[in-house]
Amino acid sequence: MQFTLPLAFLEVLLLAAVRITAFLVVAPPFSHGAIPLRIRGMLGVGLALATTPGLLEGYRSLDTAGYLGALLAELLAGAGMGFLVMLAFSAIQSAGNLIDLFGGFSMAQGFDPQSMVNGAQFARLFHFAALALLVSSDGYQLMLAGIYRSFSAIPLGAGLALPAMAENLGELLGSMFLAAVQIAGPLLVVLVLADLGLGLLTRAAPALNAFAMGFPLKIFITLALAGTVFVVLPSVVSALVGDGLSALPAVVPR
Questions:
Q1: Rounded mean pLDDT of the chain?
Q2: Sign of the CA dihedral running 96, 101, 107, 113
């Protein structure tokens, strides 16, 4: 009995699986620690099986050194695109960090090993809310579609354009901070005005020691008005998915 091993199919499958798995390990919501690495690896191989037949056309077998280099390029490409998506979604966590800082919750920071988030209550709450909205709105399907389309934009073994990657990274950093301020902006204005009011009250009546009441007052204001921020989160998550997907074509090598 003869058995023919399709080497070209296996080579393409491994290259595609490395890119998809690296993307799933870094990009939310697949990067959450509740999903074991074994499951992410199996999911990456399963998704690679669906795209391998279309990638076989035009593929040329490489020697050992060239194939190892192509594997490294696919690993960097998948991780780089996943990092761009993760950076876009960091805006929501940054908004929570701003609220914790101005509201007085930053003194009770903690590290969540599941989501790899280091922050106080609102940073982790916003992170979980963004993941829940990402899953419930089928945004993760758009991400998977984006990584599938990347194979037509970035050929196997081509890698990323590092200058374009660095430029796009700088743009996303600016957009992340701007989005964080826009999300938490209304509540931050109220908290700053509360600090100004306490300062004027202390100036007018120093014996009252108004700043001693500042911490419970700011915590009360934050808890009372935090619900207004969640109103804009669905539209923000939708916009961030679009930003993350639009960042992928910018790293195509030219």
A1: 77
A2: positive
Handedness of CA 77, 81, 84, 89 (dihedral sign): negative
33 burial level (CB within 10 Å; 0-12, 13-18, 19+) = exposed
Pairwise CA distance, residues 140 & 126, whole Å = 17
CB 202 within 8 A of CB 211: yes
Q: What is the pLDDT of residues 25-73, one digit of tens each?
A: 888 888 877 788 888 888 888 888 888 888 887 777 777 788 888 888 8
Residue with structure tokens 């390029």?
Answer: 73
d(CA 92, CA 181): 10
Handedness of CA 199, 201, 203, 207 (dihedral sign): negative
Bridge partners, 111 (sequence order): 118
Peptide linkage before 29 cis (omega within 30 of 0): yes
